[in-house]
Design a protein that fits this description.
single chain, 609 residues, alpha/beta, Signal recognition particle alu RNA binding heterodimer, srp9/1, Rossmann fold, Helicase, Ruva Protein, domain 3, six-stranded mixed beta sheet, five-stranded mixed beta sheet, 11% strand, elongated, binds adenosine-5'-diphosphate, binds zinc ion
């Protein structure tokens, strides 16, 4: 087994070793130059003496570099001297006494000193590279352990975070409770032959608590926590990343049951290129392959090692990472909604002296689009403002100032979160949801609706598919088109103007309509013929293309008209739901049914929790 010599945790192991190494190297170089120098000891002589020696024919040869002269006497002794600039006298007598003259241009340094200076510079360069502060932040670069992982290891006794340290994020915590149980009682699952999850992907924008959740899992399971960032794997040297992965997993297995947390997994986990050039890609691919190999290798281990990885770009990840047995669980860590924001604020407020009159709910209301980290920052900024003013307590006014300060820094991100935009989003999502509720027979049951931004989407309406559908009938497909158009229609009804926010909805609607026409033979005009644009399939004529376009347009327009009529007839419900969404930000199906007084379909009741 490989010994771990300070690969983890930095401490004395990392920069310190390197420092000694550089010092010793410099020392050795200085000694060497010394030795070579003494071997070629020269005596310094005055210019007059130099001229004397030449006239006495005692000088064998000289090397002249500008004003400095190094020479050798007939008896092999070496000397050096400095001569006046531009003195023809010297040249005269040198020639007269047949001295061998060599003129050296440029530097007058010999080969060896130059060589050592070069070496010294190279050593300094290497030292600078490994001692750069940014690299050390991850836990100490170490020239003796290039292949060693740069992960930080936290022992259970040092992990203070528990699920109670994470406010809000109920769904994420619920998902991760399973992971905790796997770690604590692997036998319980093995007994029945269940395969334990090996990886979970935490998906969410920065600052929403992905790292915090991962640490909380370790805290709950009382097991060691290895933390590394995806970018720490990537080195200029091919193969280093892969060996770091190997080392990391070896360490984690040794301490199993344990958790590996890889932040920014997209740095290593991006889609592999189809044969790209350049070392950078090679290195990343090797690293990714090693990661996949290590995750596949868990099966045989007795105690589980679970990998939690964080990203805000799940779309760029290599599909191989998401396959069963790898990161097959996905845990969403979205921006907090109103209730969660209040809880996060209250949690962080505990460590600060706050005026009892300050209502956290009110502050939560004024901070849509803030991440957990922003909220923690808000409390801290407010406390700083209060301290500056020598107050005894943090008061509401301080929070308002702090909020404005943070908002300034976030301007671009929250630009979509003006009151107007929130209202538009609320109507848009309410439109989607209401169509679903009005067409219960042919739609998947509604799960939840939210106007909390997620990734690039301003809001989301979720439904839970009842079963894996391989067949949809025409009525279901038309209903899906109507639900997709519902967002834009609601905007139009309420605001009488058109926004750009419905592009992806139109894309979805158009896709369904095109499939109905070109694949499933659901229109009379084109009949049961498959029309495909793909090469190798049936290619159709320009005339047919026009027909297809017309049919697709007709389907969408009919759906649009019908859906608009539905929403117009239920305008009161649309307004009611939008208002409730603006208030609560996230609503579950049960609350929506209750609010609108709609009776859910019998077999849809399972989504009501
Ligand atoms: P991420 O890894 O998603 O970028 P972090 O876990 O690093 O986010 O969160 C940064 C900080 O924000 C945390 O240390 C914590 O103080 C605060 N924070 C974020 N989400 C929450 C939450 N749900 N509850 C309490 N604090 C939170
Ligand atoms: Zn939409």
């Amino acid at each position: 087994m490989k010994k771990n010599k300070g690969g983890f945790g930095g401490g004395l192991g990392g920069p310190f070793n390197l420092f000694i190494f550089v010092v010793v190297l410099c020392g050795a170089i200085m000694m060497l130059t010394r030795i070579t120098d003494t071997a070629r000891e020269k005596i310094e002589i005055p210019y007059s003496e130099y001229l004397n020696l030449i006239t006495q024919d005692k000088v064998k040869k000289v090397e002249i570099a500008g004003v400095s002269v190094v020479g050798q006497l007939q008896d092999q002794k070496r000397f050096e001297t400095v001569v006046p600039e531009n003195n023809p006298e010297q040249w005269e007598i040198l020639r007269k006494h047949n001295v061998e003259v060599q003129i050296i241009t440029g530097s007058n340094l010999g080969f060896w000193p130059l060589f050592f200076i070069g070496l010294l510079l190279a050593a300094l360069l290497v030292a600078w590279y490994f001692l750069r502060p940014s690299r050390n932040a991850g836990g100490g670069g170490n020239i003796f352990s290039m292949g060693k992982s740069k992960a930080k290891m936290f022992l259970p006794s040092t992990i203070k975070d528990k699920f109670t340290s994470v406010a809000g994020a109920h769904e994420a915590k619920e998902e991760l409770k399973d992971v905790v149980d796997f770690l604590k009682n692997p036998e319980k699952y093995k007994r029945l032959g269940a395969k334990i999850t090996r990886g979970a992907l935490l998906v969410g924008e920065p600052g929403n608590g992905k790292t915090l959740l991962a640490r909380a899992v370790a805290g709950e399971a009382n097991c060691p926590f290895f933390s590394i960032s995806g970018s720490d794997f990537i080195e200029v040297f091919v193969g280093v990343g892969a060996s770091r992965v190997r080392d990391l997993f070896a360490q984690a297995r040794k301490h199993a049951p344990s958790i590996i947390f890889i932040d920014e997994i997209d740095a290593v986990g991006r889609q592999r290129s189809a044969g790209g050039f350049g070392g950078g890609h090679d290195e990343r691919e090797q690293t990714l392959n090693q990661l996949l190999t290590e995750m596949d290798g868990f099966e045989t281990a007795k105690d589980p090692v679970i990998v939690l990885a964080a990203t805000n770009r799940p779309d760029v990840l290599d599909k191989a990472l998401l396959r069963p047995g790898r990161f097959d669980r996905r845990v969403e860590v979205p921006y907090p909604d109103l209730a969660s924001r209040e809880q996060i604020l209250s949690l962080h407020a505990k460590s600060v002296h706050i005026d009892v009159k300050v209502d956290m709910k009110k502050i939560a209301r004024g901070t849509p689009g803030f991440s957990g980290a922003d909220l923690a920052n808000l409390i801290n900024e407010a406390a700083i403002i209060a301290s500056k003013n020598n107050q005894d307590q943090v008061v509401l006014e301080d929070f308002e100032q702090a909020r404005d300060k943070i908002l300034l820094g976030k301007e671009i991100k929250t630009i979509a979160l003006t009151a107007e935009d929130r209202k538009l989003t609320a109507f848009h999502e309410a439109g989607h949801a209401l169509i679903r509720l009005l067409l219960p027979k042919v739609m998947d049951p509604l799960h939840k609706v939210t106007i909390v931004p997620r990734g690039r989407a301003l809001g989301v309406t979720h439904s839970i598919p009842e079963r894996e559908k391989y067949n949809s009938n025409k009525e279901e497909m038309l209903a899906s088109i109507k639900a997709a158009l519902g967002g834009r229609i609601a905007e139009e009804i309420e605001f009488q103007e058109l926004s750009t926010g419905a592009y992806s909805d139109f894309l979805a609607a158009t896709d369904i309509a095109r499939d109905m026409v070109c694949r499933y033979g659901m229109t009379d005009a084109l009949g049961p013929v498959v029309y495909s644009q793909r090469q190798g399939d049936f290619v159709y004529s320009q005339k047919t293309a026009e027909k297809i376009d017309n049919e697709v347009k007709a389907i969408i327009e009919t759906c649009y008209t019908q859906a608009k009529a539905m929403l117009n007839q239920n305008r009161d419900k649309l307004t009611q739901l939008s208002q409730a969404l603006l208030e609560k930000e996230t609503m579950y199906a049960r609350d929506i049914y209750e609010l609108l007084g709609i009776e859910p379909r019998e077999d849809h009741k399972f989504t009501q929790e």
